[in-house]
UniProtKB/TrEMBL annotation:
<feature type="region of interest" description="Disordered">
    <location>
        <begin position="260"/>
        <end position="292"/>
    </location>
</feature>
<keyword id="KW-0396">Initiation factor</keyword>
<dbReference type="Pfam" id="PF04760">
    <property type="entry name" value="IF2_N"/>
</dbReference>
<feature type="binding site">
    <location>
        <begin position="493"/>
        <end position="496"/>
    </location>
    <ligand>
        <name>GTP</name>
    </ligand>
</feature>
<feature type="compositionally biased region" description="Basic residues">
    <location>
        <begin position="160"/>
        <end position="174"/>
    </location>
</feature>
<keyword id="KW-0648">Protein biosynthesis</keyword>
<dbReference type="InterPro" id="IPR036925">
    <property type="entry name" value="TIF_IF2_dom3_sf"/>
</dbReference>
<dbReference type="InterPro" id="IPR005225">
    <property type="entry name" value="Small_GTP-bd"/>
</dbReference>
<feature type="region of interest" description="G-domain">
    <location>
        <begin position="387"/>
        <end position="535"/>
    </location>
</feature>
<dbReference type="InterPro" id="IPR053905">
    <property type="entry name" value="EF-G-like_DII"/>
</dbReference>
<dbReference type="InterPro" id="IPR023115">
    <property type="entry name" value="TIF_IF2_dom3"/>
</dbReference>
<dbReference type="InterPro" id="IPR015760">
    <property type="entry name" value="TIF_IF2"/>
</dbReference>
<feature type="region of interest" description="Disordered">
    <location>
        <begin position="54"/>
        <end position="210"/>
    </location>
</feature>
<dbReference type="InterPro" id="IPR006847">
    <property type="entry name" value="IF2_N"/>
</dbReference>
<feature type="binding site">
    <location>
        <begin position="393"/>
        <end position="400"/>
    </location>
    <ligand>
        <name>GTP</name>
    </ligand>
</feature>
<protein>
    <recommendedName>
        <fullName>Translation initiation factor IF-2</fullName>
    </recommendedName>
</protein>
<dbReference type="InterPro" id="IPR027417">
    <property type="entry name" value="P-loop_NTPase"/>
</dbReference>
């Protein structure tokens, strides 16, 4: 179907005469008569191989002989060639780990498949790796298969694991009109093959030796890196940080390009220029070429797989465009980007359309997603675990009282004397069964945290005060729980109050879509009092019942996975993450990763202040031993060893940092306009320090809302922990920055430093005081509101025109005072005709400073002479008023 190559083309490629090649073709039994006769791509590949090596193509039955695996010695015979150049050596190494059977599949002819199958029969499930081109593929496979047989090689991994390790580009070069089945060697990024390292890929490494054998079968000269399907694997996260790796890739690409240019292979390395035919533009010089089918060659587009977070220059490189072109397209659409900026999804889509390439985005963080990796491993046992509860509800509806009551009953039962440690959650026991309660901060500014709380939560208890009913935050809490797919139990609180009206609460709940069970709905409601303790046992029982229905289980035998509910820096401990174990068991000594930080568990503090050696599912604890303070909502996972945890955390951190940096440089044109006019834009730079992550987030989100068009709050740094000298230095470096501390205070030395540098530090213990102060500060920064106050009025009785001076109006002051230089409006028939100011005010012939009501005067208006008798001159002054938010 058009996949034909003429004998003469192959001859030229092989550096042979047409007749020589024709004979070879005939020897192989191909139906060819003249140099213009065509053969299929598979045949071409075989022919080329045969012509160059004299070896009978594997899989092609010799006359009177069955398809057989090639001889072992072939591998050796070719071996020296592999070492031709360091690049080649590198490619060998790299290809070992990335060649997969799938890649070779499309290029195989029927015979090749048969050969493979024949070889495969010798070993069960031999997902034998294969190189890129049919001729060698066949040999490679058989060689591997033979070896496998001897060494009981385990099945080779398929391509899937490779994906995890980086980015894959499938380039489908635009076909040339007549050569659409051929791809120039140089269409494939030459550095591609060298981008992979076999290191750290144990599953694949197993096959190393065998794969070398395959390569031993191949002529590496100029064609080794040509992948079947032109697969190029980039960015190996398992080895280095993506950024370093990208740099290296770029260097390799350049080096390879140079080498190729020097060798005259295939001309300049083309990247995937969509409009350029992937033809055989290069010289052949006797170099052996490989013919193969490109599986989806009918597709005219290029499919480029790129990370979701791709930078402009990376994108440009991957689609074969210049950075300038990419920037230009985006600029024309109103987005200013620099070369290092990350592109968002929309931009990628637009660019792909513009450049006529198909782009598939993949998330590079997938490779760093330790949580997904953990979740991918199945539990081996499932044991029941206690439910984790979050109490939510409207302000003052009794969340804290309820939690305190439950906690205090438990403490009493334990007859504990020690100080209860705040670990963000606590466990109680009811009828021998445990329940974990998360201490949610009960304030509106913590809405965000509540939403997160629901994620760590199995069941949400939503409190509604019996004397107040369903309020806005009640509904908000319901939405959070529902959004998180968490079952809801309603605790109707304060039932001891005389004003309590439980039925009223229930009907309001029903209106809000929460129909109580006793009314035929799905929601359990329990009346409770944190004063008398009434209903509390009922509530706990209801929780346990709900939990039972949910069949909550975990595998305590696994490595731990925990959710950070809050974190802080504690004296004597350093960073402490308060977590609840979701699965597995966390032990002292475990190496953990959490977000972008890591550490070794030094101490596990339980909710009663005692220490534990290990904690199981649903247990809350303070984890000591992390290097930094993680954010609430992040997931902690125990890793195999310290190295693994550290490397992963570092990569994630680097990635997050680079992304953050990039974001900050992105400006849209609209914003740019604003920035240009910005001489006037006022910012209030703040350094915010708080005792716990939760408060910090709450403050930050409250501050983010405090802006209008004129003034912006800019938290230049927000952190958990005390106010330090570096905070002071940071504030000092930014104009007008101040430091706000929440439940933290500066030490003497820091205070002094701040005084010396003139940096203001304000500390608070109530969030709303802090917010109010910031509001006041912002108001101070806002432009004053200017209002006008009318100061006087005068009627024009006569007019005099004085040459070279202008018109003087003879007036009678009717109201207030007319002052010289005051702002003035000329009003005619009730309409303001002109607004300027009094340029001259005279009493008789004398200049006057002011003329009061009842007196006559001469008035001249600045730049205005068309004054008529009967006009009114009104004077005014501007009054500045401080604006408030
Ligand atoms: N009579 C009575 N008063 C209660 C009960 N529960 C709470 N209160 C009172 O209601 C008020 C608010 O209770 P909190 O527990 O602080 O309410 P909250 O929902 O935690 O409030 P925030 O933390 O501000 O959101 C306090 O004055 C409590 O004493 C109850 O069951 N009965």
């Amino acid at each position: 179907m058009g996949d034909k190559v003429k004998i003469q083309e192959i001859a030229a490629e092989a550096g042979m005469s047409n007749s020589e090649l024709l004979n070879k073709a005939k020897e192989l039994g191909f139906n060819v008569k003249v140099a213009g006769s065509s053969v299929t791509l598979d045949q071409a590949a075989m022919l080329m191989d045969y012509a160059m090596t004299g070896r009978w193509p594997a899989g092609l039955p010799k006359p009177g002989e069955k398809a057989e695996a090639p001889k072992e010695e072939k591998a050796e015979a070719k071996a020296p060639q592999e070492a031709k150049s360091p690049e080649a050596a590198e490619r060998v190494e790299s290809t070992e780990s990335e060649v997969t059977p799938e890649k070779s599949e499309p290029a195989k002819s029927e015979e090749a498949k048969e050969a493979k199958e024949a070889a495969a029969k010798e070993e069960p499930a031999p997902e034998a790796p294969a190189p890129k081109k049919p001729a060698t593929v066949r040999k490679g496979i058989t060689a591997v298969a033979k070896k496998s047989e001897e060494e009981q090689e385990t099945p080779q991994p398929r391509r899937a694991p490779l994906r995890k390790r980086g980015i894959t580009i499938v380039k489908k070069a635009k076909p040339a009109p007549s050569r659409e089945k051929k791809i120039s060697l140089t269409d494939v990024s030459p550095s591609a093959s060298s981008r992979k390292k076999k290191k750290k890929v144990p599953a694949e490494a197993k096959s190393t030796g065998e794969k070398l054998e395959i390569l031993g079968e191949r002529d590496l000269g100029g064609s080794v890196e040509l992948f079947e399907e032109q697969e190029v694997v980039l960015l190996d996260f398992s080895d280095k940080t993506i950024f370093e790796e990208q740099q290296r890739q770029e260097e390799r690409r350049r080096a390879e390009a140079k080498r190729r240019a020097a060798q005259g292979i295939g001309g300049m390395p083309q990247r995937n220029f969509p409009n350029r035919p992937g033809g055989r533009g290069g010289r052949r010089g006797g170099k052996k070429r490989r013919y193969y089918k490109q599986q989806e060659s009918t597709e005219k587009v290029s499919v480029v797989r790129i990370p979701e977070d791709v930078r402009v220059y990376e994108f440009a490189e991957k689609v074969g465009r210049s950075v300038g072109e990419v920037v230009k397209v985006l600029f024309s659409l109103g987005t200013m980007v620099t070369k290092n900026d990350f592109l968002d999804k929309d931009s990628i889509e637009i660019l792909a359309e513009e450049f006529d390439v198909q782009v598939e985005t993949i998330n590079p963080l997938d490779a760093l997603d330790y949580v997904a990796a953990y979740d991918a491993e199945p539990n081996t046992v499932e044991e029941p675990r206690p439910p984790v509860i979050t109490v939510m509800g409207h302000v003052d509806h009794g969340k804290t009282s309820l939690l305190d009551y439950i906690r205090s009953t438990k403490v009493a039962e334990k007859e504990a004397g020690g100080i209860t440690q705040h670990v963000g959650a606590y466990q109680v026991e009811k009828d021998g069964k445990k329940i974990t309660f998360i201490d949610t901060p009960g304030h509106a500014a913590f809405t965000e945290m509540r939403a997160r709380g629901a994620q760590a939560t199995d069941i949400a208890v939503i409190v509604v005060a019996a004397d107040d009913g369903v309020m806005p935050q009640t509904k908000e809490s319901i939405s959070h729980a529902q959004a998180a797919g968490v079952p809801i139990i309603i605790a109707i609180t304060k039932i001891d109050k005389p004003t309590a009206n439980i039925d009223n609460v229930k009907s309001q709940l029903a209106e809000a879509g929460i129909l109580p069970v006793e009314w035929g709905g799905d929601y359990e409601t329990v009346g409770v009092s944190a004063v008398t303790g009434e209903g509390i046992d009922d509530l706990l029982e209801t929780i346990l019942l709900q939990a039972e229905m949910m069949e909550l289980t975990a595998d305590p035998t696994r490595r731990a996975k925990a959710i950070v509910i809050e974190s802080s820096v504690e004296k004597g401990f350093g960073p402490v993450a308060n977590v609840i174990i979701k699965n597995g068991t966390l032990h002292v000594g475990d190496n953990v990763i959490v977000g972008t930080t890591f550490g070794r568990v030094r101490t596990l503090i339980l909710d009663d202040g005692s220490r534990a050696k290990e904690i199981g599912p649903s247990t809350p604890a303070g984890v000591v031993g992390l290097h930094e303070v993680p954010s609430a909502g992040e997931v902690m996972v125990a890793m195999e060893n310290e190295k693994e945890a550290r490397e992963l955390a570092e990569k994630r951190k680097e990635y997050a940092r680079a992304k953050e940096l990039s974001k900050s440089t992105k400006v849209s044109i609209d914003e740019l306009g604003a920035l240009i006019a910005e001489g006037k834009i006022k910012k209030l730079p703040l350094v915010v320090k708080a005792d716990v992550q939760g408060s910090l987030e709450a403050i930050k989100s409250a501050l983010a809302e405090l802006k209008n068009e004129e003034v912006q709050v800019e938290v230049i740094h927000g952190g958990v922990g005390g106010i330090t000298e570096s905070d002071v230095l940071l504030a000092d470096a930014s104009e007008n920055a101040i430091i706000l501390g929440f439940n933290v205070r500066p030490t003497g030395a820091v205070k002094k430093k701040a005084q010396d540098l003139g940096v203001e530090i304000k500390t608070y213990s109530i969030i709303y005081d802090l917010i109010d102060d910031v509001k006041a500060l912002l108001s101070g920064l806002m432009s004053p509101v200017i209002t006008e106050e009318v100061t006087g009025q005068a009627e024009v009785r006569e007019t005099f025109t004085v040459a070279k001076v202008g018109t003087i109006a003879g007036c009678m002051v009717t109201e207030g005072v007319i002052e010289r230089n005051a702002g003035a409006r000329l009003i005619r028939n009730g309409v303001v005709v002109y607004t300027s100011k009094i340029s001259s005010l005279k009493r008789f012939t004398e200049d006057a400073k002011e003329v009061r009501a009842g007196f006559e005067c001469g008035i001249m208006l600045e730049n205005f002479n068309d004054i008529k008798v009967g006009d009114v001159i009104e004077t005014f002054k501007e009054v500045e008023e401080q604006a408030t938010l």
